Amino acid sequence: MRVLARVGVGPLCSAARAVIPWFWRGKYFSSGRESAENQVTPMLRHLMYKIKATGPITVAEYMKEVLTNPAKGYYVYRDMLGEKGDFITSPEISQIFGELLGIWFISEWMATGRNAAFQLVELGPGRGTLLGDILRVFSQLGSVLKNCDISIHLVEKTPQGWREVFIDIDPQASDKLRFVLAPCVTPAEVFIQSDETRDHVEVCPEAGVIIQELSQRIALTGGAALIADYGHDGTKTDTFRGFCGHKLHDVLIAPGTADLTADVDFSYLRRMAEGKVASLGPIKQQTFLKNMGIDVRLKVLADKSDEPSRQQLLQGYDMLMNPKKMGERFHFFALLPHQRLHGGSHPMNACQSKPSPSPVAGFGELAWR
């Protein structure tokens, strides 16, 4: 489940149009390397016209154009998922992933009063595989149901203070792009903490808005949010990268031909919740799925499968759980009402039963009763 949305920045001061070269980790970074991949794509041509017309653009605006432009966007005209695509997601690897998440939602529904009507919302669906697996679990367990990619702003610490990173045309090569620093303050810098110790920070303002909205709704009406993605707890700096054919790809080369992404900063999400709700995690995907009983579910499915299907199940399990693959790279993070963890009353309607003070599934070791 992705809950981070694409963002942009409003008009900047006129001085922001003048920029200075930027050094990426001490090395000048641009798309100017000689490479067979360094082709002038329709998207690159579009970006060149845009930058010439309005000046350097933010990394967030670059990602938005490259990924979602209705005429040339990567997500609009490419089938990016699966072995033949550029990356693969956990739900596409194994049905067990979605099934366990379905059990998590049912567990929370039962623990918070079995409300006769509720909403299940996925932000950032791909092919709908995850929700399909979740709904299948709901159906099998007789539930009550009847019938956003990340765009980030890069900000670097300089002797003059925090400065946002922009993308401009390389003056030494008119068909290439480069990173530059804004010479003055931009709106993205407002989201930097006063005690920040990192020298590079990636911020996503609209993600904060979404988390604040979710937190307010959960605090007022109950419910829960479960966020699963690769990320960190405020420890990483530069995670902006591209993927093409399941391999890392220079983010400034041949825009429109590769996926662009960045890690989720879960400490930022926790901060944006503003204490309105309780948060759990982030914990590693390997730990969460183990706590949800993935080993038991794997055995049940494997015992009922023929040899080719069994091998496919084992391969999917290894991809999800292996620390060197997705097991420690992906994390789970949850937002819940404070009373869900600490007890206390919460308004209930006539269709709800009394909530139970049970542990939150997935965030503690599985206990059999």
UniProtKB/TrEMBL annotation:
MF terms in GO: protein-arginine omega-N symmetric methyltransferase activity
Compartments, as annotated in UniProt: Mitochondrion
Family matches, as InterPro entries: NDUFAF7, NDUFAF7_sf, SAM-dependent_MTases_sf
Gene3D superfamilies referenced in this protein's UniProt entry, alphabetically: 3.40.50.12710
Predominant cellular place of this UniProt entry's protein: mitochondrion
Record keywords: Acetylation, Methyltransferase, Mitochondrion, Transferase
GO biological process, one term: mitochondrial respiratory chain complex I assembly
Enzyme Commission number(s) from the entry: 2.1.1.320
SUPFAM superfamilies: S-adenosyl-L-methionine-dependent methyltransferases (SSF53335)
One Pfam family matching this protein: Methyltransf_28
EC class (word): transferase
Keyword Mitochondrion: yes
Catalysed reaction, written as an equation: L-arginyl-[protein] + 2 S-adenosyl-L-methionine = N(omega),N(omega)'-dimethyl-L-arginyl-[protein] + 2 S-adenosyl-L-homocysteine + 2 H(+)
This protein's GO CC annotations: mitochondrion
Role, per record: Arginine methyltransferase involved in the assembly or stability of mitochondrial NADH:ubiquinone oxidoreductase complex (complex I).
Entry similarity comment: Belongs to the NDUFAF7 family.
Full protein name: Protein arginine methyltransferase NDUFAF7
Upper taxonomic lineage: Eukaryota, Metazoa, Chordata, Craniata, Vertebrata
Gene: NDUFAF7
